[in-house]
Automatic annotation (TrEMBL):
Positions of the NAD(P)-binding domain: 8-130
Keyword set includes Nucleus: no
One Pfam family it belongs to: NAD_binding_10
Protein name: Nucleotide-diphosphate-sugar epimerase
UniProt keyword annotations, A-Z: Photosynthesis, Photosystem II
Presence of keyword Phosphoprotein: no
Domain of life: Bacteria
SUPFAM superfamilies: NAD(P)-binding Rossmann-fold domains
Length: 244
């Protein structure tokens, strides 16, 4: 089996992906801005430092690194470093990047376009919000007397389920844009807030919060959901049970 480079291999999703790739017998190399124990290469996609050494000789790149700003430039640097070789580029994007007018999502959509037009063999996997992200929204409010819940639905997915799918892509080879992956349940913000409070054993009134603007109207219209892909996997309650 060939070597796999995982950018973002120290992140929420990346840590689990690296574990599963190693279990499946792959040689895994991690690109990180900080030196890591084991098979890692120090590098920075923002400056390009260390990136050519990181991609050297790998057959597959799982590009999971992300930052609030600069994802498109980082992706472009990574693609440039792969030339003239053509490793399989696997990119994790987000459901609705082309429908929800957030700057962070626009950058992800631009990464998709850069990869599609790069000439590299590629697989693009969009995923819904991770359980950990939804939990953080509620956890951030833990000291408030009330719990605010957005008036839209989410379909949170577990990083272990996304990681399993990404490992399949490594083994299967390039598939271009593949069906989205979503969590097992589509739930209202209100019901997810209640689940968080139940797991954290906190008593708070949940107040629905309808935010104005185009971003929230696209969330309310369900642009962040993959209803045809609610095919099982770890539920939000199961995820929370591991944390509290
Ligand atoms: N969170 C969600 O709900 C969600 C949903 C769908 C899709 N996704 C996508 O899934 C992917 C993984 O998300 P995540 O939540 O697991 O990410 P995360 O935990 O925020 O991790 C970010 C990773 O990016 C790396 N990174 C950041 N800036 C870098 C730079 N300049 N150079 C090199 N590495 C850099 C970090 O590595 P070091 O700090 O070690 O350098 C870290 O490993 C992302 O593409 C994200 O958009 C996320």
């Amino acid at each position: 089996m060939g070597d796999v480079l995982v950018t973002g291999g120290t992140g929420n999703l990346g840590r689990v992906v690296c574990e599963k790739l190693r279990e499946a017998g792959h040689e895994v190399r991690v690109l990180s801005r900080r030196p890591q124990p084991g098979h890692s290469v120090r590098g920075d996609l923002r400056t390009g430092e260390g990136v050519p050494a990181a991609v050297e000789g790998v057959d597959t790149i799982l590009h999971l690194a992300t930052a609030p700003r600069g994802d498109a430039e980082a992706c472009s640097r990574l693609i440039a470093a792969t030339q003239p070789r053509g490793p399989h580029m696997i990119f994790t994007s987000i459901v609705g990047v082309d429908r929800i007018p957030l700057a962070y999502y626009a950058a992800k959509a631009e990464c998709e376009r850069l990869i599609e037009t790069s000439g590299l063999p590629y697989t693009i996997q969009r995923a819904t919000q991770f359980h950990s992200l939804i939990m953080r929204v509620f956890h951030a409010q833990r000291r408030l007397p009330l719990m605010f819940a957005p008036t839209c639905d989410f379909q949170p997915v577990d990083v272990h389920d996304v990681a399993d799918r990404l490992v399949q892509h490594v083994d299967a080879g390039p598939r271009e844009r593949v069906p989205d992956i979503g969590g097992p349940e589509i739930r209202s913000g209100h019901s997810l807030a209640k689940a968080y409070l139940g797991a954290a054993r906190r008593r708070r009134r949940v107040v629905n919060l309808a935010l104005p603007g185009r971003v929230f109207s696209s969330f309310r219209a369900g642009a962040n959901l993959a209803p045809d892909q609610a095919n099982g996997g770890v539920t939000f309650e199961e995820f929370l049970a591991e944390r509290f």
